[in-house]
Amino acid sequence: MMTKDALAAYPPFGKDEAERALANAVRLVGENLDDFRGCFPAANSENNFYPKSYNTDWTEGFWTGEVWLAYERTSDGKFKDAALTQVESFLDRIEKKINVDHHDMGFLYTPSCVAAYKLTGSETGKKAALAAADNLLTRFHEKGQFFQAWGDMGAKDNYRLIIDCLMNMPLLFWASDVTGDPIYAEKAKSHILTATNYIVRPDDSTYHTYFFDPETGKGVRGVTNQGNRDGSAWARGQAWGIYGSALAYERLGDERYADIFVRVTDYFIEHLPDDLVPYWDFDFDTGSGEPRDSSAGVIAVCGMLEMAKNLPREQSDYYEGAAKRILKAISDTCAVKSRDCSNGLLLHGTYSKKTPTNQCRNGGVDECNAWGDYFYMEALTRLVSDWEKYW
Ligand code: GLY
């Protein structure tokens, strides 16, 4: 178990080190830019190199988000031009409804199109992101008060929410802010309440997904998709819970979400292995030989750095310190140094590992993944600047 005292003995990431790491990431994004013109990196690498893909998965927003972060750091117009071209592709996708019959509108449209609007006033970005928010609204169930993640709407075998969806809610809050229509924020608020009521277990670990009864709207059972087993804590799910609750608290100011943040974050930290790079599921600990999920670590770091802005001093110092220690450990062991070894930014992520007791396909195990790269850059950006978030 990683105690507070044990964690304090690890070195935190210094600002100079973080600046060097961010400069390296920005350089790599610049070097990879030409390879992904007119296309996107796939969701995960294969042997550490991303194949080319198109704007059809849930993950393309992360590459555009990396390009925006590189633009923010450098003010180099080549990044702005590339990101704005990609924004056109997001508008085309939502207008043609290409693979948008799922809940991941926030992951797709926040770091790409909301960012474009916030950074440049792009009307294309605004139009695309609002259309995506409208699309997400169609997945809300009054019976149960939640957004259905995947599958045909209302189908009993998919009448469920997943913890990841907390990260799709900022798109809806943004949509209410820019349109003045409260409906988006109201539905987001209801979903967050339902999700946090059901997915956090008494021991502060989390379920990945939770089923509801379509007739009554009552919660039925928690099951995993990508975790090791239904009762385990999938590391990335726990990390989505950390960042999702931090954003919910920042937006809603409801102490219930500060409490959830503390519970799920303390569980995450306590279950870190000796080298602070999380295994893909917290069933596994130091020496297990299981693959890591570096992406879970950097998502958790972003959540802690966000929440540190809104906590009393002592708590804030603790979570900021924890974030700096985890980020240093991950950067030291997982950051790509040159394009000879990878065209990503962060090695040792795990997308989904098939086990006898989970439902996912095996894929992206011990590889880079699009969200790991993005949140690594976001975490570094948060450490070196007073960053205005896209979420
Ligand atoms: N949101 C999907 C995943 O984290 O794999």
* Physical arrangement of strands within the biggest beta sheet: 5-6-7
How many structural domains does the protein architecture include? Answer: 1
User: What small molecules accompany the polymer chains?
Assistant: glycine
| Beta-strand content | 5-15%
Order of helices and strands: HHEEHHHHEEEHHEEHHHHEEH
Helix content: 40-55%
Integer-rounded radius of gyration:
19 Å
Structural account:
- With 391 residues, the chain is mainly α.
- It is 52% helix and 7% strand.
- The chain has helices at 4-8, 15-32, 60-74, 77-96, 105-120, 123-137, 169-179, 183-199, 235-252, 255-270, 294-308, 313-334, 370-384, and strands at 40-41, 52-53, 140-141, 146-147, 160-162, 209-212, 219-223, 349-352, 363-367.
- The strands form four sheets. A three-stranded antiparallel beta sheet has the order 5-6-7, with helices on one face. Strands 1-2 form a two-stranded antiparallel sheet. A two-stranded antiparallel sheet has the order 3-4.
- α3 packs parallel to α13 (370-384) and α5 (105-120) packs across α7.
- The chain is globular, with a radius of gyration of 19 Å.
- The chain starts with a helix and ends in a 7-residue tail after the last helix.
- The mean pLDDT is 98.
- The structure holds glycine.
- Residues 164, 226, 236 line the site of glycine (GLY).
Summarize the structure.
The chain has 391 residues and is mainly alpha-helical.
